[in-house]
Write a structure and sequence with these properties.
This is Ferredoxin, 2Fe-2S. InterPro entries: Thioredoxin-like_sf. It comes from Bradyrhizobium oligotrophicum S58. It is a single chain. By secondary structure, this protein is α+β, with helices and mostly antiparallel strands. The chain has one domain: 3-Layer(aba) Sandwich (Glutaredoxin), CATH 3.40.30.10. Helix content is 32%, strand content 16%. The protein contains three helices and four strands. Strands 2-1-3-4 form a four-stranded mixed sheet, covered by helices on one side. A hairpin with a 3-residue loop joins β3 and β4. α2 packs across α3. The radius of gyration is 17 Å and the shape is globular.
């Protein structure tokens, strides 16, 4: 395929917006005692399970959830980032997941107490 054919194909391709919100959740699991730590070591798996089961059971088909690798804030986890808002959350218990789903995903209101503030 020539460069002009690639450009033409790119021009014709439109990505439909599938989701109102799309959550990416770090599921990185490093060995115990690793100096960087990991979201897995900090208990992300039960939160991931709760999130995916809640989204599915409530049939929230406009919410995407994707397992992600390391976000680089290993000792701060578990964490997720929600787009298109770019909100970074640090849920630590199942009730936090319920609150994110109810408030952010269903009502469009971020959960301030769970937001991770990124310092520049």
């Amino acid at each position: 395929m020539s460069d002009s054919e690639v450009a033409e194909a790119d021009d014709e391709f439109e990505v439909p917006q599938l989701y109102k919100y799309h959550a990416f959740v770090c599921l990185t699991q490093r060995p115990p005692g690793h100096p960087r730590g990991s979201c897995g070591a900090l208990g992300v798996q039960p939160l991931w399970d709760r999130l995916t089961k809640t989204i599915e059971s409530q049939r929230l088909t406009d919410i995407g959830v994707t397992a992600a690798g390391c976000f680089g804030f290993c000792s701060a986890g578990p964490m997720m980032v929600v787009y298109p808002d770019g909100i970074w959350y640090r849920p630590t218990k199942p009730e936090d997941i319920d609150e994110i789903v109810e408030s952010h995903f269903k009502q469009g209101k971020r959960v301030d107490r769970l937001v991770m503030v990124l310092k520049r």
